[in-house]
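Why predict the complex rather than its parts? Because the way molecules touch one another can change local conformation, and only a joint prediction can capture that. The input here totals 1054 residues.
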Amino acid sequence: MSVGTRNKTSFDWVLILIYLALVFIGWLSIYATSQNPEVTEFFNLDNLYFKQLIWISFGFVLIVFILSLEVKFLERFSSLFYLICLVLLIGLFLFGKNINGATSWYAIGSLTLQPSEFAKAATALALAKFLSDLQTDIKTLEGQLKAFAVVALPALIILPQPDPGSAIVYAAFFFPLYREGLAGVYLIIGFSSIILFVSTLLLGTPLICSIILLTGILLFYLNRKKRPSKRIYFGTILLACLFSLSVNYIFNNIFEQRHRDRFNIALGKEIDTQSIGYNTQQSEIAIGNGGWTGQGFLQGTQTTGDFVPEQETDYIFSAVGEEWGFLGSLVVVFLFVALILRIIILSERQKNEFSRIYGYGVAGILFIHFSVNIGMVTGLLPTVGIPLPFFSYGGSGLWAFTILLFIFIKLDSNRVNEW
Amino acid sequence: MRKILLFALVLTTGLIFAGRLFYLQIYDTSATTLSKNNAIKAVYDYPQRGHIYDRNGELLVSNQPSYDLMAIPREIKAFDTLALTKLIGVTPEKLRKEIRRAWNYSPRQAQVIIPTLSKEEYAFLGEQLRKFEGFYIQKRSLRDYQIDFGANFLGYIQEVNPSTVSKDPYYNSGDLIGRQGVEEQYEHTLRGIKGVKRFQKDNFNREIGPYKNGTLDTLPVQGKDITLTIDAKLQEYAESLLTNKRGGIVAIEPSTGEILALATGPSYDPADLVGRKRSKNYTKMSYDSITKPLTDRALQGQYAPGSPFKALTGLIALQENVIGLNDNVYCTGSYNYGGRKPLGCHAHKRSVNLVSGIAHSCNSYFATTYRRTIDKYETPQKGMNAWKRHLESFGLGNYLGYDLPIGKKGLIPGADFYDRYYEFYWGSTTNISNSIGQGEVLMTPIQMANFTAAIANRGYYYKPHIIKSIKGEKTIPSIFTKKNVTTINKKHFEPVIQGLNDVYNFGTAKSLKVPGIEICGKTGTAENYDKIDGKRVQLTDHSTFVAFAPKDDPKIAIAVFIENGYWGSRYGGRIASLLIDKYLNEEVARKDLENWVLNHSLEEEYAKPLLGKPFPINDGSKISAKFLAQENLEQ
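Output of the joint prediction:
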């Protein structure tokens, strides 16, 4: 302890500066999207940007609080946070408030809180705690099942709220698991399932099955001198074909029509500019209208004309695209990439397993949010309602991401004190 | 691998997004247009279209207000349908249909329900408009014609078509644009520039304020008035003389190239293409494939010029130095060049030289000079091209370059034309008909008027043009003030002009003299053919005439072309004589001649091929002689 005391406050200022930059640009964008000609004074709670400013201020209080906590406290009570979050999530089924068709909020007066946002941070802590335990071995099936359970439990509770967007985020925990030694076969299975799913939708089952069969047999034939196991080869081929066959069933029978539409639009199989494709089209128009340097702050016609629905929340990036153009958008993309890469690099430097796993969890969560959100806003991915961290309007989200990030900054500041 | 997977994924995603953003924001520019349609509403302020005056300052075309009944479909409240339909003079079915159409297009957007109400309808409706909620009146400007002639060179205005809108960003759907005539040619001058105020809209199409604080808004620029070279009185007279005839008349002032009259028959009242009846009238005329009232025969009619061409044949022969002024040709009534049948001529004294050859329109004389011209060169190709070069210097065989949007090239065949046509040898006798303005030579009436003006000027011409001045501009385009010199030496014109003068003195038009004015002119009787039921049939000859006057100080050069007008002096000569009289003397004293032209109709003649009747005019000299006796006129 005596060695590290003088370094006790060495917070990573790069992360803090990127955080401040993102929150600031995010607030400017909310300011641009929520111009209301009827409310002219700044300090008015009818203004979303003023409310967001209050959330940001609260966020700073949270930061001070987190940074003043003892690291040991965070590590020791992580299971407790996790349990509290689970209870809050379950409690939604009884006391939750329904907003936009999803029962994901607690309402306390006019203030609403979304526990699923905080559950991500709690799950990251709990997973870090579980994996860093000396008794846990991720290479055993038991260890894997337990780890999956930690991750899947909150996701399964969130899914039927219904909030599939927030549930998808839990896929982020694959990254810390894989980093800590989860077998590579999961990665292969995961990736090939996604590729099979999309290619089957695009090209149809018969073509995909024939391609699988032909390449499988060809590979087997080419490797025949190595005496490959017939069982593995043909088992894989069979499974792949079965999966491809079931894609149509899943797509047509388990997915709802709106999900099907979203997929078809993202895959370019359907063109729709009115009902379900309206958001994406308007968002693409707004971004495209930006050109090189953008229309200028408060000058975006799509943004000030409220053409993009949900622009202050999930579609906030389209405001950046229109008002700050290609260069401004690149800056934001660069900030996110830098933030996540910085977290990964710092995580790798952690000597404490708990901090490293938690860091990977944070990087994974931010990555999924960043890629799915901007992918959706730019029309590359189907519409999935998840917010852009630090940008999208909303107190719960902002606070949850602030807590998520600053716990890591706290853990990281402590790394010299370990040992 | 385990350490770099996420790292690599994040980097890749960043690059993919950068690429996607580049595509959306830089590469694919369609979004900007879509956004403009989405979010910016432009309100236009249309300036008054410029007025059109004739050369004497008489107002020809001005503007009149017109009133459109507009409505925002959503805001229409239940109203007394019958009362409204009575006020605006439409049936209730029509009104309901229009409202339904507007509603289907957009319930929120203001649209025209009934266009162009008359002043009277507007006056009564305006008083009671408050009873019909959701409706309002929009004022527009339409053309107001002070004259009922000149439709062919005035042109008209109409709503722009979608292809113009997509090509020219100035125009928006529903804007008016000039079509045909000076309305099209001087569109940019006449229309001015509309002013624009831009408002930003929100997603409910509501205005939320000026776009970019109005910094891009502009004020309208007034349209400019233009003065035409047309003499309205002469034009009106020319058109009246074309009553019941098909053909074209062009009159040019030789010293300037200004077009004094440009008439085509049949024509129409320009007011027919204004307002609510416009569409109906236009359709009717454009479907009329027999009389073709929308075709300007003065500019677009390509005809064999006939005998007036002999003046050019003579000029070329003089310039090529292949004839002398006193070289006589002995005409036996036909010219035998060794073809299947001799080139026929008509009755006149046997021995002719250049001057009397023109006066008597002797075919044999000009066949001879033509052969000498072509055969002067070692090959017919060279001869033909030399001949063509001379003619081209008179503005023939190509677009003249006048300031009206339509026209035809005509045809002056050169060596390559016949090389393509004939597989083996060809020579001056092959196309001997060219010498007398038949054969392959084709001209439009305005080209004929122009070469007449060039002869009147003794060797040069100015490009014919219809613009005299533009208000606020000192000059007209310089191409119209540049002298175009022909390849014929000035001294060669005098004998030809003497011949043209003798046409009136003792030649083919001696009965058409205007007292006190020395006129030079030339009759033309052009054979023409058509296909009827797949058979090539010779129709009644066209009547052509070119003239200029006075002989020594030409003020007017005229070409008249009357389709199937029997022979040159019968219609063409009479009309030219009357027009010269009108222009130089203001008043026509020869009322009997005037009445003859006004009352004679060729409609029966035009009906003949359609009814399958024969054409006795071509049956030989006997019937011609009968006509001669009847009219007491010499061909």
